[in-house]
Amino acid sequence: MAILTAVSAAASRLESAGISGEDSRREAALLARCVLGWDAAAWLTHQREPAPPGFQEAFDILIARRVSREPMAYLIGEREFYGRPFLVTAGVLIPRPETEFVIDEAIALARTRADASRGRGSETVIVDIGTGSGCIAITLALELSEAKLIATDTSAVALRVAEENARRHGVANRVEFRLAPFLAGFADTVDLVVSNPPYVPESDRASLAPEVGQFEPAAALFAGEDGLDVIRALVPRAAGALRPGGALVMEIGFGQASQVQRLVEMAGLTDVRLVPDLQGIPRVITALRPVS
After folding, report:
1. Which of 19, 43, 89, 152 might form a disulfide with 14, Cβ 3.0–4.6 angstroms?
2. pLDDT higher than threshold 70 for residue 201
């Protein structure tokens, strides 16, 4: 059987499982390339050739997993974030484009902070709470060459993935990973606290796509009935850990902006900003600890 024929049959199976026609064809071709180890150029050149030995069996396993609606990122083993590939496994939240807004805001605030303290000999210290795959901490380490990164998580599985990602991107010596909740064990204050915390309400669980609700780690998604349980605990801890002039940068969920802003202000932070995503939804909140 030609490779393209096998892919076409697989795309029909994916479409029958509820994946749209365009996505089913794209995903079937991508899974075939994954089995074959081909890049896009090899696929265009050789897709009409007979399937090599062992291809169909390995391909069928991946298609069956996708038919069950397992996310493509888990099948392929990586997801792009901020222009770089990150290893992902079933134990970590899959990086999403909207989280890149956290990176943009953190970079701007860290550079402002560094400029203000230039000449004093102090490095910028950034803590990533709930690091998961490590995509936020590692990206910030790559974009901010003079910053020190500390990343915490309560999942040992996630930290192993994050540590591997740090090695792959050459910053294993610049990101310290800690198995701890929030900022437990921190004795010193820091310049930035960044986080993509769990913020999905439990009441939304049934309405989530199967790829999310059935496969991604619940602890990285859900945070009580209104989705704010983790944020309520995180905000005052972050505020207490920030140096004067330091900043909190945090991703939030749909419809949570006003409630989270109140929590941030109650914790004594000021200069609150809400940053919309490409759909105009407030997606990131930033706030500063007053200098005096």
Report:
1. 19
2. yes
**Is 127 in the same domain as 36?**
no
Side-chain-side CA neighbours of 71 within 13 Å: the count stands at 23
Q: Domain for residue 79, yes or no?
A: no
Are residues 130 and 264 both part of a single domain? yes
pLDDT of residue 118: 64
What are the Cα distances from residue 250, in Å, to 42, 59, 85, 110, 243?
A: 41, 39, 22, 14, 17
> For residue 123, what pLDDT is reported?
85
Q: Which domain does 145 fall in, by range?
A: 97-288
CATH code at position 111: 3.40.50.150
Specify if 148 maps to a domain. Answer: yes
Regarding whether 239 and 202 lie in a shared domain, the answer is: yes
pLDDT for residue 223 is more than 60: yes
Looking at residues 263-280, what average pLDDT do you find? Answer: 97
Distances (CA, A) of 255 to 22, 63, 87, 91: 31, 36, 31, 27
pLDDT value at position 120?
A: 60
The answer to whether 137 touches 128, Cβ cutoff 8 Å, is yes
* C-alpha span between 256 and 269 (Å, rounded): 17
In a domain, 224, yes or no: yes
Over residues 275-286, the pLDDT tens digits come to 999 999 999 999
For residue range 39-73, list pLDDT tens digits in order.
Answer: 999 999 999 999 999 999 999 999 999 999 999 99
